[in-house]
Amino acid sequence: MVKLLPFFAATVFFQPAFVLAVGGATGSPQGFASGTTGGGDAAAVTPTTTAELIGYLGDSSPRVIIIDREFDFTNTEGLCNDCAGCIPASDTCGSEGQLSINANGWCGSDPATTVSYDKAAIEGIYVHSNKSIIGKGSNAIFRGKGLRLVNNVQNVIIQNIHFTDLNPEFIWGGDALTLDGTDNIWVDHCKFSLIGRQMIVLGFGPSGRVTISNCEFDGQTSWSASCDGRHYWAILGYGNNDFVTFVGNYIHHTSGRSPRLDYNSLWHAVNNYWYSNSGHVFDVSSGSNALIEGNVFENVTTTLLPDSTPGQVFVPRKSTTGECAKYLNRNCYSNSVISSGSLSGSVTSFMVNFTGHDIAPAIPPSTVKASVLAYAGVGKI
Ligand SMILES: *[C@@H]1O[C@H](CO)[C@@H](O)[C@H](O)[C@H]1NC(C)=O
Ligand SMILES: *[C@@H]1O[C@H](CO)[C@@H](O)[C@H](O)[C@H]1NC(C)=O
Ligand SMILES: *[C@@H]1O[C@H](CO)[C@@H](O)[C@H](O)[C@H]1NC(C)=O
């Protein structure tokens, strides 16, 4: 009975059955994006073709869009055959590494080569405001194309969708989720695997209030920029004035950028489980701010990359968890760091930025691994 208790407590936190569902979703968002309602009361639609899905996502009606199957976008926009690419310096392992598409002049003076890739993955589907995109069961898959939330898109829920197969062989092969100029975005119980570039990228414009919860970032790949079967380009938070709650996620077999933060953003990373990262998890540059509490890091080489111009980071120790009380109205939890590089950060001044925002609750790190393994990812709700 005593052994079951933490598991039950975690169930209550991550699967709050007593909270009314919003916008056709299961549960409701915690943390910064707590006001998100997506398509609200709109009648549900269930697209059956990629064209119909693109239409529902991009039109101006509030919509609850049910995804009950796999949508395969590969070959829908043709191939780029023998297009310009290069062999980046990181690719020291031939076919087990990642070649690069020469996008944005990125290749520079790296040795040129040709690459053939699927064009559909390069740019995501445009999503309008007031949409819920809700996967049913465990086969709600977007294959070969991601989503693009830009130009002042607000109030979108993306739940229980598996994004996969976006030119994983190539750097710049495609981003699964792009946020750039958004507000109130809730990404929940999604899975990301075999993505060429970023699994999630928050671009230079303000992303506003975002909650990324209960997602699985699966970095296992046969084309690794770090030449070790792990994906380097996981999560990039480059926005200005971003408020990101990152809670209950499972990030595994990555080798960098998990996440990399820059510019003026505030991240609350709480109750996540990082496992088997051969490079760095956090890279927090000057201007960006992160509260890292109640997480588990297991077999992570570098938990927080030393930066020449570091951002502001608070990593509560057992003796300093009380420092959070005046900003969060509760104490923080310390982190559990197992077979991993050390983690520390003692700046608290940036936490004034939490004022006036909804703060995600937290569970003790001792219950986080079991809870995350049970609930993060697709097919769990
Ligand atoms: C989204 O819905 C809200 C509330 O109904 C409405 O005020 C707003 O104009 C909608 N946004 C767009 C871009 O349609
Ligand atoms: C973590 O890494 C160590 C070696 O550093 C290894 O012995 C151990 O099996 C790994 N743990 C897991 C759970 O894979
Ligand atoms: C947070 O507060 C700091 C002061 O410590 C400020 O420089 C920064 O702009 C704020 N960031 C956000 C995202 O509001």
TrEMBL record:
Question: Can you name a GO cellular component term?
Answer: extracellular region
Q: Which UniProt keywords apply?
A: Carbohydrate metabolism, Disulfide bond, Glycoprotein, Lyase, Polysaccharide degradation, Secreted, Signal
* Biological processes, Gene Ontology terms: polysaccharide catabolic process
Q: EC number(s) per UniProt?
A: 4.2.2.10
Superkingdom of this protein's organism: Eukaryota
Q: Where is the signal peptide?
A: 1-21
Group of enzyme by EC = lyase
Q: Which Pfam families match?
A: Pectate_lyase_4
**Where mainly found?**
secreted
The GO terms this record gives for MF are: pectate lyase activity; pectin lyase activity
List each copy of the Pectate lyase domain by range.
96-303
Catalyzed reaction equations: Eliminative cleavage of (1->4)-alpha-D-galacturonan methyl ester to give oligosaccharides with 4-deoxy-6-O-methyl-alpha-D-galact-4-enuronosyl groups at their non-reducing ends
Task: Please name the InterPro entries in this protein's record.
Answer: Pec_lyase, Pectin_lyas_fold, Pectin_lyase_fold/virulence, PEL
Q: Where in the cell is it found?
A: Secreted
Q: Belongs to which family?
A: Belongs to the polysaccharide lyase 1 family.
Function, as annotated, reads: Pectinolytic enzymes consist of four classes of enzymes: pectin lyase, polygalacturonase, pectin methylesterase and rhamnogalacturonase. Among pectinolytic enzymes, pectin lyase is the most important in depolymerization of pectin, since it cleaves internal glycosidic bonds of highly methylated pectins.
Q: What is this protein called?
A: pectin lyase
Native species of this protein? Phialocephala subalpina
